[in-house]
Design brief:
By secondary structure, this protein is of the alpha/beta class. It is built from 10 helices and 13 strands.
């Protein structure tokens, strides 16, 4: 079967697409990758100190940054220009376009965040007022709980670009997803790993989403062997929590689920923008119903103070 994979052109995105290609080729399919430039790729080339081009600013205003790395790929998928879209799960909005479905979620990489410092210092050893390269509100708010003196620098660009900016002195350290660092073979750069109590990851972090046209049986059959049920269930619970909370990249929301025996265990975090109020909660439920587990944890977070935080952010 001839299959065309749609992917962004970054080194990490192509690693992910080539991993899927290798699995499908091993199963006897003829596969090629088609690179598609997304709005998110154009956004990364704009300096944080410069105003956004009108087209990108409009896209961000309409949908936030969530989905900017996948919009054009999904359009190509719906137009039948490609047969499969490979995304980082954390880039995928909780509501998918009509006619598209995530047919497979492969086994998850390490979901943790990592610290990469320029001189090998741990977070505790960084100098007072150290600059941390991250534009993620989720990371910033949780880092403030660990050290209130830190400053944050919004660095755009792919992983290699951010590492170059670190090495030239734009900041003292970076906080990145372990999965991307591992996939590109850059583990030697990692200074330390955050545990889930210190830094709860983004929803879906470390997982891939293989998206196809709904009802296209031949493609669904081809990618079905790539699905890892435990990862799929965990990600489903995390995304259900996020969907119930109604949050996106503009709200510091984090979650991580894992399958333990017959139960899914889910932790979630909601923080305000100042980082001085962080709501944490956990829940467990039957693996057969990840949707209900995600909704349950969302309600716990809302009842513990997340509702006021979310309402405040939406009004700002």
């Amino acid at each position: 079967m001839d299959i065309i994979i749609g992917s962004r052109g970054s080194k990490l995105a192509l690693w992910q697409a080539n991993w899927v290609l290798d699995q499908l080729v091993a199963a006897g399919h003829a596969v090629e990758i088609r690179i598609i430039k997304t709005t998110g790729d154009r956004l990364q080339k704009v300096s944080p100190s410069q105003p956004l081009p009108a087209s990108i600013a409009q896209a961000v205003a309409e949908a936030g940054t969530k989905g900017l790395f996948i919009k054009e790929i999904e359009e190509a998928l719906r137009a039948r220009e490609v047969d499969i879209a490979v995304h980082s799960m954390k880039d995928l909005p909780t509501e998918q376009p009509e006619g598209l479905v995530v047919a497979a979620v492969p086994s998850r990489e390490d979901a943790r965040d990592v610290l990469i410092s320029r001189n090998g210092e741990s977070l505790a050893e960084l100098p007072a007022g150290a600059r941390i390269g991250t534009g993620s509100l989720r990371r910033q708010t949780q880092l403030r709980c660990l050290r209130q003196d830190l400053e944050f620098v919004a660095l755009r660009g792919n992983l290699d670009t951010r590492l170059r900016k670190l090495d030239r002195g734009d900041c003292e350290a970076l906080v990145l997803a372990a999965a991307g660092v591992h996939r590109l073979g850059l583990q030697a750069r990692i200074t330390s790993y955050f545990d889930f109590d210190q830094m709860c990851p983004a929803v879906g972090q470390g997982a891939l989403a293989i998206e196809v046209r709904q009802g296209e049986a031949r493609i669904e059959r081809a990618v079905a062997p790539l699905d890892h049920p435990a990862t799929h269930l965990a990600v489903h619970a995390e995304r259900a929590m996020l969907r119930r909370l109604g949050g996106g990249c503009q709200v510091p929301i984090a979650a991580h689920a894992s399958l333990e025996g017959q139960q899914l265990r889910l932790r979630g975090v909601v923080a305000n923008l100042a980082g001085d109020k962080v709501i944490r909660a956990t829940a467990a439920g039957a693996k057969e119903d990840p949707e209900s587990l995600g909704a349950l944890l969302a309600e716990k977070l809302l009842d513990q103070g997340a509702r006021a935080i979310l309402e405040s952010i939406q009004k700002s």
